[in-house]
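Tokens in:
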């Protein structure tokens, strides 16, 4: 484990760049506070077309160029940009692709229609996050995934990327936030989400093609689960062995810091055994 705990935050929205739901404020508040408390932080999110590159001073990370993300039979180039969060000295990496993220909206068009390729955008983003961190060579102690758009990352890590030295000791936190959509995802979700060492059985729970099934998949493979207090008991439950906590805007930082310390201790014990 590094001298400073390394926390990777993954979210598809974050203030001040994009706000679709309450995730955006949590995705800002939590990493910012953790950095102020002495942790080393990186944040990854999509570079939606509505994010003004000039205003937020995004620039391409040339040394990370050359990554292609395969979805089905298609190679999709990944462009990685970076900006520093104002007044926080915190780096935010933006994953970009012309086909998936240049449109001027998040998950719905200007008439409120759910994008038909949101499942492919999710797959691209999840694979892109992991490939970006591998290329960066920045080994996170904890990977904190926020919401359905990050829900494949725990599975991919446990089945495939765990063999990478970068992720060998990483612990995974998955946060369930209030629902963002009721529509069905694309029928080829399971086929396109499959990667090496991921089986049909691993993806079987995605058959309903809905948001809740994505949460269930992530929870199955996370080392800890956190969920918004406003959800009550409506969230899908995890393995009883995994820590489960609730949070609200007032206790967000404190309860997560305690959780991180518990997970970091488990890493230390594993290394020392």
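Residues out:
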């Amino acid at each position: 484990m590094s001298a400073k705990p390394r926390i990777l935050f993954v979210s598809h929205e974050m203030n001040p760049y994009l706000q679709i739901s309450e995730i955006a404020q949590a995705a800002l508040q939590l990493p910012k506070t953790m950095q102020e408390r002495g942790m080393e932080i990186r944040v990854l999110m999509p570079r939606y077309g509505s994010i003004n590159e000039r205003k937020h001073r995004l620039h391409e990370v040339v040394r990370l160029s050359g990554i292609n993300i395969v979805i089905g039979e298609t190679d999709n180039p990944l462009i990685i940009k970076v900006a520093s969060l104002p007044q926080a000295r915190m780096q935010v990496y933006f994953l970009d692709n012309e086909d998936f993220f240049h449109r001027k909206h998040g998950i719905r068009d200007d008439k409120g229609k759910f994008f038909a390729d949101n499942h492919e955008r999710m797959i691209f983003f999840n694979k892109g996050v992991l490939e970006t961190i591998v290329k960066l060579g920045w080994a996170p102690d904890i990977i904190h995934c926020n919401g359905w758009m990050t829900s494949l990352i725990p599975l991919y890590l446990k089945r495939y990327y765990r063999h990478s030295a970068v992720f060998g000791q990483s612990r995974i936190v998955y946060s369930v936030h209030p629902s963002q959509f009721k529509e069905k995802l694309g029928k080829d979700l399971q086929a396109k989400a499959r990667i090496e060492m991921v089986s049909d059985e691993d993806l079987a729970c995605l058959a309903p093609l809905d948001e809740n099934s994505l949460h269930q998949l992530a929870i199955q493979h996370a080392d800890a689960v956190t969920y918004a207090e406003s959800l009550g008991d409506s969230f899908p439950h995890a393995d009883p062995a995994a820590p489960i906590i609730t949070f609200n805007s007032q206790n967000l930082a404190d309860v997560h810091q305690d959780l991180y310390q518990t997970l970091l201790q488990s890493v230390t014990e594993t290394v020392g055994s």
